[in-house]
Write a structure and sequence with these properties.
Elements: H1 9-25, H2 30-62
Helix pairs in contact: 1-2
Protein backbone atom coordinates (compact mmCIF):
# COMPACT_ATOMS: atom_id res chain seq x y z
CA UNK A 1 0.00 0.00 0.00
CA UNK A 2 1.15 3.54 -0.66
CA UNK A 3 1.46 6.20 1.98
CA UNK A 4 -1.47 8.66 2.17
CA UNK A 5 0.72 11.57 1.03
CA UNK A 6 2.16 9.60 -1.92
CA UNK A 7 0.02 8.86 -4.99
CA UNK A 8 -0.32 5.27 -6.14
CA UNK A 9 1.57 3.81 -9.09
CA UNK A 10 -1.29 4.26 -11.55
CA UNK A 11 -1.70 7.93 -10.63
CA UNK A 12 2.02 8.51 -11.02
CA UNK A 13 2.02 6.84 -14.43
CA UNK A 14 -0.93 8.98 -15.54
CA UNK A 15 0.91 12.11 -14.40
CA UNK A 16 4.03 10.97 -16.24
CA UNK A 17 2.05 10.37 -19.43
CA UNK A 18 0.53 13.86 -19.14
CA UNK A 19 3.99 15.39 -18.71
CA UNK A 20 5.29 13.52 -21.76
CA UNK A 21 2.33 14.83 -23.74
CA UNK A 22 3.13 18.38 -22.71
CA UNK A 23 6.77 17.96 -23.68
CA UNK A 24 5.88 16.39 -27.02
CA UNK A 25 3.50 19.23 -27.85
CA UNK A 26 6.47 21.55 -28.36
CA UNK A 27 4.49 24.48 -26.97
CA UNK A 28 6.46 24.92 -23.73
CA UNK A 29 9.11 27.52 -23.18
CA UNK A 30 12.58 26.23 -22.40
CA UNK A 31 12.11 26.92 -18.67
CA UNK A 32 8.71 25.19 -18.62
CA UNK A 33 10.11 22.24 -20.57
CA UNK A 34 13.02 21.89 -18.13
CA UNK A 35 10.67 21.98 -15.11
CA UNK A 36 8.36 19.46 -16.76
CA UNK A 37 11.31 17.22 -17.60
CA UNK A 38 12.53 17.40 -13.98
CA UNK A 39 9.07 16.43 -12.72
CA UNK A 40 9.06 13.54 -15.18
CA UNK A 41 12.42 12.29 -13.93
CA UNK A 42 11.16 12.38 -10.33
CA UNK A 43 8.00 10.49 -11.27
CA UNK A 44 10.04 7.94 -13.24
CA UNK A 45 12.21 7.27 -10.19
CA UNK A 46 9.18 6.89 -7.95
CA UNK A 47 7.56 4.48 -10.40
CA UNK A 48 10.77 2.46 -10.67
CA UNK A 49 10.96 2.21 -6.87
CA UNK A 50 7.36 0.97 -6.77
CA UNK A 51 8.13 -1.63 -9.43
CA UNK A 52 11.27 -2.75 -7.58
CA UNK A 53 9.24 -3.18 -4.38
CA UNK A 54 6.60 -5.18 -6.21
CA UNK A 55 9.28 -7.39 -7.77
CA UNK A 56 10.82 -8.05 -4.35
CA UNK A 57 7.42 -8.92 -2.91
CA UNK A 58 6.72 -11.35 -5.74
CA UNK A 59 10.10 -13.02 -5.18
CA UNK A 60 9.35 -13.42 -1.48
CA UNK A 61 5.88 -14.79 -2.21
CA UNK A 62 7.34 -17.28 -4.66
CA UNK A 63 9.98 -18.29 -2.13
CA UNK A 64 12.88 -17.47 -4.40
CA UNK A 65 14.79 -15.39 -1.85
CA UNK A 66 17.94 -13.43 -2.55
CA UNK A 67 19.63 -16.14 -4.63
CA UNK A 68 17.12 -15.90 -7.44
CA UNK A 69 18.27 -14.56 -10.77
CA UNK A 70 15.73 -12.80 -12.92
CA UNK A 71 15.92 -13.43 -16.64
CA UNK A 72 15.63 -10.31 -18.78
CA UNK A 73 12.41 -9.99 -20.73
CA UNK A 74 12.74 -10.07 -24.50
CA UNK A 75 12.42 -6.69 -26.20
CA UNK A 76 8.90 -6.02 -27.32
CA UNK A 77 8.98 -3.63 -30.24
Amino acid sequence: MSKPDQPDFESQMAQLEALVGRLESGELSLDEAMQTFEQGIQLTRQCQQALDKAEQKVQVLLGQGDDAKLAPMPDQE
